[in-house]
Amino acid sequence: MPQEQSQIRERVRHDLHEPRRYKVTIHNDDFTTMEFVVKVLTLVFLKSQADAEQLMLHVHQSGKAVVGIYTYDIALSKVQRATAMAREEGYPLRLTYEPE
Fold first, then answer.
1. With the CA atoms of 97, 81, 48 and 72 taken in that order, what torsion angle do they form, in degrees rounded to the nearest 10?
2. Do 85 and 44 contact (CB within 8 A), yes or no?
3. pLDDT reading at 1 higher than 60
4. Neighbours of 94 (CB within 10 A)
5. Residue 71, pLDDT score
6. Are 97 and 24 in contact (CB under 8 A)?
7. Buried b (16+ CB within 10 A) or exposed e, 58-83
8. Which residues are paired to 96 by β-bridges?
9. CA 58 to chain centroid
10. Which uninterrupted H or E stretch holds 8?
11. Are the C-beta atoms of residues 41 and 54 closer than 8 Å to each other?
12. Residue with the larger pLDDT of the pair 1 and 49
């Protein structure tokens, strides 16, 4: 059987780009315990115990610190999860995200 050639051409998109990244910042307050901040950093942001403690001290001394850089969906879900954990425990911990 002879092969038929079609007139259909595939379109190729060349304008793909990497998704925008967002930095998540944790803010210091006078009520959230240091132990709880370390817990959030290890459970939600997957920091090691040593890194979480060092980051917690940095937040305590300077008022805020960037805890990670993620795509929009991941940044939003991590902020929501950490905020929900804090509210369940009665802490006013505040996390924000903004474009990198």
1. -40
2. yes
3. no
4. 16
5. 96
6. yes
7. bbeeeeebebbebeeeebeebbeebb
8. 25
9. 18
10. none
11. no
12. 49
Q: Where are the beta strands (DSSP E) in 29-89?
A: 64-71
- Spell out the residues 6+ positions from residue 63 whose beta carbon is closer than 8 angstroms to its own: 27, 28
Residue 62 is encoded by which pair of tokens?
């300077």
Longest C-alpha distance within the chain, in Å? 81
Terminal CA-to-CA distance of the chain, rounded, Å? 58
pTM of the predicted protein model: 0.82
**Strand residues in the chain grouped as ranges (E):** 21-27, 64-71, 94-99
Strand 94-99 with 64-71, pairing: unpaired
The two counts, helices (H) then strands (E), for the chain are 3, 3
Beta bridge partners of 94: 27
Q: Which helix (H) or strand (E) holds 76?
A: helix 72-89
Q: Quick: pLDDT tens for 11-30.
A: 776 777 888 999 999 999 99
Residue with tokens 């990244």: 21
